[in-house]
Amino acid sequence: MGIVVHSVVIGLGMGASQNVCTIKPLVAALCFHQMFEGMGLGGCILQAEYGAKMKSVLVFFFSTTTPFGVALGLALTRVYRDNSPTALIVVGLLNAASAGLLHYMALVELLAADFMGPKLQGSVRLQLLCFLAVLLGAGGMSVMAKWA
């Protein structure tokens, strides 16, 4: 759900934006976020014990949420103002909710299962390497967020 809300908000912001300076960072964020979210979600979908129909539905929803957000943003360009207080509050609440859901899913659902597995629990060196990898990944995403 967090990925769906997040993708719609990014698409909405891109579709509603009229400024080239705003669109360029959104395209960069869209490319990186969708690529990494797609890889993570794809891995989870493959590991899940769903049937082919359910897997197809999940992939379809992930593939269509951002284009839906862009289309919605384009449709709302006449009534949507980037700097209006209502738009800023709504986008801020949606971003906060989707960020919280994404953090929860990443830390509790995905990483906890890997870190609590027998392979990592048996090796302190491997645990330290995995913690370092998580910190480097989070730092890299923070640098990209600052740049974008």
Which short descriptors sum up this protein?
about 150 residues; mainly alpha; 6 helices; transmembrane helix; ion transport; membrane; transmembrane
Average pLDDT rating: 80
Biggest beta sheet summary: none
The end-to-end span amounts to 24 Å
Low-pLDDT runs of 5+ residues are none
* Strand fraction: under 5%
* Count of runs of 4 or more consecutive helical residues: 6
* Topology, number of strands: 0
- Classification by helices and strands: mainly alpha
Helix and strand pattern: HHHHHH
Task: Please explain how this structure is put together.
This protein is an all-alpha fold. It is 85% helix and 0% strand. It has six helices and no strands. It has helices spanning 2-16, 20-47, 52-75, 85-115, 118-121, 124-147. The chain is globular, with a radius of gyration of 18 Å. The relative contact order is 0.15. The model has no long low-confidence stretch (mean pLDDT 80). Keywords: Cell membrane, Ion transport, Membrane, Transmembrane, Transmembrane helix, Transport. It is found in: Cell membrane; Membrane. This is Fe(2+) transport protein 1.
Layout: helices, strands, pairs:
Blueprint: H1 2-16, H2 20-47, H3 52-75, H4 85-115, H5 118-121, H6 124-147
Helix pairs in contact: 1-2, 1-3, 1-4, 2-3
Summarize the structure.
The chain is mainly alpha-helical and 148 residues long. Helix content is 85%, strand content 0%. Helix 1 packs antiparallel against helix 2 (20-47), helix 1 (2-16) runs parallel beside helix 3 (52-75) and helix 2 runs antiparallel to helix 3.
